[in-house]
Fold this sequence. Notes:
Shape: rod-shaped
Helix content: 10-25%
Strand content: 35-45%
Radius of gyration: 60 Å
Number of strands: 30
Largest sheet: 5 strands, mixed, barrel
CATH superfamily of the largest domain: Nucleic acid-binding proteins
Distance between the termini: 197 Å
Low-confidence stretches: 1-29, 34-39, 587-618
CATH architecture of the largest domain: Beta Barrel
Number of helices: 11
Amino acid sequence: MENFQSQDQEQVKNNLNVQAEHSDSEVQPDMGDLYEQSFKKLHEGEVHRGLVVQIDKESVMVDIGSKSEGRIPLSEFTDEAGQVRVEVGDEVEALLVRWDEEDDEIILSKEKAAKIKVWEEISRIYNEDGTIEGRVTARVKGGLSVDIGVTAFLPGSQVDLRPIKNLESLVGQTFQFKILKYNKRRGNVVLSRRAILEEERARLKNTTMAGLSEGSVMEGVIKNITEYGVFVDLGGIDGLLHITDMSWGRIGHPSELFKIGDRIKVKVLSFDRDRERVSLGLKQLQEDPWTKAEEKYPVGTRVQGRVVSLADYGAFVEVEEGIEGLIHVSEMSWTRKVRNPARLLSVGDLVECVVLNIDASQKRISLGMKQVEPNPWDVVAEKYPVGTIIEGKIKNITDFGIFIGIDEGIDGLVHISDISWTKRYKHPSEAFKKGDQVRAVVLNIEKENERFSLGIKQIEPDPWELVPAKYPVGARVTGTVTNITDFGLFIELEEGIEGLVHVSEVGRHKGKSLRELYSLGDVISAKVINASVAERKIGLSIRRMKKDEEQALYSDYLSSRPGAATSSLGEQLQQALSRAALQEAEANKKPEVLNSDSPAEEQDEDERAAMEGEAEED
């Protein structure tokens, strides 16, 4: 035992000598005093300074004086990578955790000694309103966990000047903190980073406010991005850069141009010192492109742009940043009726167009796509003069006519009234269907209104032009009843040619209606009393035809009797009475209708026999 103590004393002396060698800048203490201190009484809970004398697999032996060596777990010297960060001869501070005098074993802790010093530092910083450095280690409920030598709590509201959505992004970062409160007994420490930032912001704000004025150009950092703009930290005071002041061109969302943390140079548009509100502009650092637009894009200039927006009435094209023009639907195609621009263009398409009009004061440019190509209506009149017979396919059928494809994008219209000279159609589909190949003649071309009129019936001669020769006034005609109205009968003389027997020209019918006397399909003879090609009308008369027949019969009768030329006055009177009686008899009979049961020839013979009988009796 004496040998062990003498060895211990010798080792302590050696250790003290090592300490003396490392203290170049300090006055070396008396070796005797150090020797005496080595035999002082040790107490649990005290922090001692000692030298590492031995390192094994599980612990580190430290000579803390008083002829004693303490054991510190090796884990307290091992870093996160598993490397041991201690060597023999290193000086360490350790807390005497336990001293077992019977077993002569001393348990030390380097970490607990460090914590005691940390708490002393925490108390000092708190009292002096200082700052302490710490590293964020984890995201916890309500905030973050920070290592400042002991585990401290950083509330979410004290992390930054503005709420941070993603607190996990701060893990692993090192910051300076203020100590809001601490409790050593419970081991609680509450930190604030916001307090430091507020102090810095207040200092910057005073400096910034002193040099802030409308029209000044400043540099700042983007702190927040919204749909309507971005907030820029100018140094202690925030300014709003509205989306409309970011660019002379079109911007869908501020995030297309910026991200949080970007440094940008802006111009102060307005500053309310009392309310501390600053409006900023970015595009104002550049010249408005509209100031020279009329010089750069005179009417007739061909330009290329990108489609940035579509509307029902047209497409907006960006000619350059800040200058947009409108292509109206009417200016998209010479030949197509564009109702929906989206069928022709898409956002992002590059298009070539021509400047039709420009008004820089109103910031408006009218553009045209179709003007890039020659107008086909300029040559269509030369290619298809009036009277030309064309052949094409029916592309569309409407209530008022049919459209025939002529050239690329040019259709001609055959109005329903120009389909046939003679037939009357209620709808063109009664005669044609889509896709039919038809022939037509060019009637008219209106270049200004882009109208191409065609006719099908005009290919053949108008049958009404032959009516005066074919149905002269006074001629007896025969036709079929096609329509019965209150004002007369319509008689079809041939396909498409009808005549009208007015009710006054039917004859006597003793109060009976025409529908009682005639039926559709009856074959009737009548006399042509007038004909108009221009009005396409033929006037017929049954009454006058009857009168002519009666007159002819009587003339034939007189000419057939002997001595007719020397008749006396009495004979002439007798003949007049006979004619009156005959007319009365005829008036009581139904008007003449020609059919198979009573042919016209039989009626004429009966009438002639009756007249001869009456004359013989006289």
